[in-house]
Amino acid sequence: MEKKAFTRGWIVAVAATLLVVSLFFATGCSKDEASSKGSGKTLYLYNWTYYTPESVIEKFEQEYGVKVVLDYFASNEDMFAKLKAGGSGYDIVFPSQDYTSIMMAEDMLLPIDKSKIPNLQYISPLVLGKATYDPDMSWSVPYFMGASGIAVNKTKVADYARDWSIFADTKLAGRMSMLDDMREVMGDALAHLGYSVNSTDDAELAAAQQLVNEQWKPNLVKFDAEGFAKSFSTGEFWVVHGYAEAVFEELEENRWDEVDFFLPPEGGPMYLDSMVIPKGARNVELAHQFIDFIHRPEIYAEFLDRFHFPASVHTKAAELMTVEPFYQGEDLANYELKNDVGADLEKYNEIWQTIRYVD
Amino acid sequence: MNSHMQEKRGRRLGITYSAPMGLWLTFFFLVPLCIIILYSFLKKGLYGGVEWEFTLTAYRQMLNPNFMRVFLRTLWVAALSTVITITLALPCGYAMARSRHQVMWLALVIIPFWTNSLIRIYAWIAILSSEGFVNEALKALGVIGESLPLIYNQGAVITVLIYMYIPFAILPLFTTIDKFDFQLLEAARDLGASKPESIFKVLIPNIRSGIITAVIFTFIPIFGAYTVPLLVGGKDSYMIGNIIVDQVTKTRNWPLASAFSLVITVVSTIGVIWMMTSTASERARLKAPAQVVDANGGIS
Description:
With about 350 residues, chain A is of the alpha/beta class.
């Protein structure tokens, strides 16, 4: 009896230890806590994941003798909630257009002193024309403008439409996915029908809803924003709607020519991420220097090269690029920025429920 | 020291011992729970957050038929996965309790937790996809010609959920079965019970508390599942957990997200109360020393 009790105690101890260890493993997502020791200032950036090349950051650190600490967000909503909840101390944040305008409206930003950023001369006037909420860069400086597109696996699919109607192709049923993103999918449908991606007109939205639910959805495996690139690389999905960098990141470079990535010519929703200086920033001066540094033509080209982005917001970097971008800046001609639709977001939400929640 | 003083001292020690747990629960469960309850009755802020205005809008929105369908689907998926999990976990727990290599089996049950759960879900994608291991193996054996649709549907969600939560069912079942006096089974057989009868009339009633714990430890986390339906589910796999995330990160409706979280908390609380009352009534029925369910069995 004594022995049995001892054994059981031992078993429980082992089990408890294993569980505790496994909990540590399970939650062990360690943050890149760069030490901010050493002399000089520290610049705190709050950016999207995989959006700033390591090499560019290092060059900035060396040239200015400072330390850069990067913190990441996965969605504008996350970033906004954190800043609203009092998360201060960031010197530069990289919101998309709708949240740039929201942050301007909510008085969360410091003005940009354009005299300190001579490289603003390279920002494309076309982009500023689209940024109707801040056309003269008083509060935000464009970082990158792009759009999601369609990737087709050419080894599996030979004959296909190079526009949004590809998702209505019943031959490809069960092999296609679209982003799990309300504004993206609705925007694609609206653009395909010839409407604005920011439409709040009930009839137009109803037509888009019908197009998605009746023509596109029956052919999709799923709405997927997480694993589609992986599934595309394994050959599970043949046609995916998504961001080029996500698709190609999963593929070895020797397979890149198997892929036809295109932006449908009808247009669609596009995003413009900008650099803004939030109130509470500690190094306003340094933040201006960083913005100027990023837009130095050779530095900006280095950033584009790293991600194979087109020089959509920069007038000088295109000629300095050494790699072929995944799509061209001109492809964005018919694209429209997804603007904040305010309270009408609820209309989109109700439609999205019929797309996403009901089989 | 007289008995009165001893009692007093015991009470003081009891408070000291339970203080850390009590503080923990207060700060990391009760306070957040109160915030959730409060938020669910407030007006949604235009850009996330809440406005300090009392309203029942969130609860009205929850009655929307699209949400009700997701709610029923969640209930169905959770119930079915739990039943299958327990059915599989019972023989496992039994075999482990009777084995001479208990430590080894326990380690084998727990070691998969050393891998991050996301990685294990992605591994299932590799197993179930149309060019995955299962389909390729069946094709090689000539069983099938075309790949079977094993992934991105409800079946895949249930399979992976069972895989994820079966250890949480095996552990409490193992601890209760281990304490079971197996001579009772022999006695039942001697008294004329058939093998199945001795299992269902003697073993199962005696390990009831373990079964209830296992049910709770599987049903509750599955009811709130989020990543599994998102990653291996298809167009028809949305569960309540996914709605909550959507309401926070996409549609900026925090009150509705809070209301849904509250639903999950209420369902979980009902489960725990059921577990506590049925264990208590069983204790009263047996009039025997407490059959304490091992609380270590189910950290989730």
